[in-house]
Amino acid sequence: MIMFNRIWTAIGAHVTAPVVIASAALLVSVTAALIAWRNYRRKSSLHLRGYALVAESSECADRYVSSVVIENLKDRAVSIYAVYLKVGHSYFIRIEDFQGGPPLILRPFETWHKEYGPIDHYTVSSKRIAMNSVLADQRAKRTLVLSTTEGKYVIRKAPKVWSPIELFFRNHMTAVVLPRRVKHDGQDVGGNIAYVVKLLFKNGESELIQLLRRDFQVRRFKNFRLTEECLQTAEALREFLQGQVDQGALVCTSFEVIDFDSWRERQRGEMPEEEHIEAEYVSYLMYKVVGRIGTLVADRRMAKSNRRLAEQRAREGRTAS
Hints:
By secondary structure, the protein is α+β, with helices and mostly antiparallel strands. 35% of the residues lie in helices and 26% in strands. It has helices at residues 2-14, 17-43, 132-136, 165-170, 234-247, 260-270, 284-320, and strands at residues 48-55, 64-72, 78-87, 91-97, 104-106, 111-115, 122-124, 127-129, 142-148, 151-154, 182-184, 187-189, 195-200, 206-211, 254-259. The strands form 5 sheets. Strands 3, 4, 5, 9 and 10 form a 5-stranded antiparallel sheet that branches. It is extended and about 95 Å long.
């Protein structure tokens, strides 16, 4: 303790007010320089990241670019004149060409995303070229290359996109739940909606009214109420609404009744019957411990089954030879 007091006293004898002021000024200067450097880096040069997805379809012979995402990570706009996918060392597939019109302008910190459908074929120098083998080759690295105002820019980093599907392969208790929506004329139609009535007016405008089977209990139209009987079938609803038009209670040039209950029945008839399950709460211990152990056991069984299948195929191959 005595030694510590001596050291502190010695330091205090040399640390005077001018030294403190000079140190504080140096700290402020260094901080200001770092901030200025960060602002310069944010405004200067380019910093983009992105990726392109390649898909295959029965609708075309070649694999094709199905989706492109480009992110601008700088606090400055970027003008892009063309987008290419470099495959391997020598192939550049042109995805977008903006040189014939206005360029693609990415504002600061903006993300650009576009989807693409199947292609007819690829050409090079007026000759048809098949790209399937190259696009499927694992050795051929795929890289997005952009033509910008500062020349060629190669995107070397892809966004770190997270998906809960990754968790499923580590824990089979993970459920990725997908909501299914039905749209009609831009509106979402809920699963309890029985009918959608589309009203057309003289000025060319239209209105959609979604009806439940219990909507006879509330007033859905200004001049009249629906009846329980008219909501039993689409035909009964059409006759009821036509009567209201004839009486002048419903003012429109024409109307259409879409029977969504019948539509859902037809969809179920065309698709395999879905198994219905009820979601239940899963505790932390159940998910983290029991789910993980069950996944390890299932993976081990799958690996053992795959080994047996491979050995069986090898034996069959030797027997055939």
